[in-house]
Specification:
Rossmann fold; 17 strands; 16 helices; 2 domains; about 15% strand
Length: about 400
């Protein structure tokens, strides 16, 4: 197991990796739940007298979202409740000068780490530990803290390199996300366990089902994945039309055999939609039975009301519910009924509940379902999925190896 910030000595100089990668609208960085979650760890460390320098990324080279972290520092300052300085350098002289001036309680954001050549280089963790980025910054600090669970699946220099050469610890977000996102696999439940699976990727859903086979009693499917499973039963749905978005046929060709094998193996343990919803000519929600969906095979954006009514009893009789992915395009209110309806049932049920997978947990705050009604709302996408499928997380492995050393 890894060490946590509870194991830190007092008043340390800390280099901390967080993940505040956010949407960017016309050049403006948008606030999201990641800022608030990481701000709690930052505030705790600053209040304990640590000097904290933050490493983070935004976007990828070549994309419109690839911007500096100056706005991120301002957003973090609002959440932390104290000044958060920014320096337009990651490990150059300007950054080193700013780091040298850090005192206990200070917080500094270094420049977008993906603007360095070392961060995304294809190297082993040991090679990342020998990079200029790591070798330059590591001597300036007493310890390294990784709070970025949502990038824990990335084998990048700022994630796996520093634990090769520094005392390393997990921050609160890393600790909590790891605990809850692996909880279904590790815990024992006396009652029924239900898993809600949506989104677009069949291979991800199948991997999660297979990894948690012995833990989960019922799988409730929706989203594009649910439509492809319906297609395997002969329904004319989940099929690309010439003018359609092209989301289905390629996935079907790659996964048809797997879908049929999984359906045969799990049988009644898999629940599929009985109705689906699309957008009508005037933008209104139109719901149709799956057997009547042939006229619009690629236009369905949500599961229907009857499906929600069929899924809710499974949730209400469960001791634990795990949600991975949305059942529809919840960002559009008229197509949020499936995701919101199932999550509302979870919120009203006295069960252990974890919600994650991309932005799915955002549904809870968007539609006022009450964060307090859920045990955990994950801010992770890829790392959350890897936890469900049993795949290793490079960041966790690096922290565990550092603890052993």
């Amino acid at each position: 197991m890894f060490n946590t910030i509870d194991d830190l000595d007092t008043q340390q100089r800390l280099l901390m990796r967080i993940d505040v990668n956010a949407p960017v609208d016309d050049g403006a960085v948008q606030d999201n739940r990641r800022f608030a979650r990481h701000a709690e760890t930052i505030a705790e460390l600053a209040e304990d007298g640590h000097a904290v320098a933050l490493l983070a990324h935004q976007g990828r080279p070549g994309r419109d979202t690839f911007v500096t972290l100056e706005q991120h520092a301002d957003i973090l300052a609002e959440h932390v409740g104290t000044d958060v300085d920014y320096v337009p350098s990651t490990y150059g002289d300007e950054a080193l000068d700013a780091i040298e001036e850090l005192e206990g309680g200070d917080v500094l954001v270094l420049e977008n780490v993906r603007m360095t050549d070392d961060e995304l280089a294809d190297r082993t963790p040991e090679e990342h530990g020998e990079s200029d980025l790591v070798q330059t910054l590591a001597p300036e600090f007493d310890a390294y803290v990784n709070d970025g669970y949502s990038v824990a699946h990335r084998p990048h220099a700022s994630i796996v390199g520093f634990p090769q050469v520094m005392d390393s610890y997990a921050g609160r977000v890393m600790e909590d996300e790891y605990e809850y996102n692996t909880s279904i696999e590790r815990r024992e439940f006396d009652g029924k366990v239900t898993m809600v699976l949506g989104g677009t990727k069949v291979e991800d859903v199948v991997a999660a089902m297979e990894n948690l086979d012995e833990k989960v009693d019922q799988f409730l499917l929706g989203g594009i994945v649910g439509q492809l499973f319906l297609r395997s039963e002969g329904y004319e749905i989940g099929i690309d039309t010439p003018e359609g978005p092209g989301l289905y046929d390629e996935s079907w060709d790659e996964n048809e055999e797997t879908i049929r094998e999984v359906k045969e193996r799990y049988g009644d343990r898999i629940s599929l939609p009985v109705d689906v919803a699309r957008e009508g000519e005037d933008g209104e929600r139109v719901t149709e039975r799956v057997e009547d969906a042939a006229d619009h095979p690629d236009e369905y954006l949500d599961v229907g009301e009857e499906t929600v009514e069929a899924y809710q009893p499974h949730v209400r009789e469960s001791e634990a519910v795990l949600v991975k992915g949305a059942l529809g395009v919840f960002e559009m209110e008229q197509f949020s009924h499936g995701t919101v309806g199932v999550l509302r049932a979870v919120a009203e049920t006295d069960c252990f509940s974890v919600v994650g997978g991309g932005d799915t947990s955002r549904t809870v705050t968007m539609y006022d379902l009450g964060e307090e009604n859920f045990d955990h709302l994950s801010i992770a996408g890829g790392a959350y999925l890897r936890a469900l499928t049993g795949a290793p997380l490079p960041a966790v492995e690096a922290l565990e190896a550092a603890a052993e050393r």
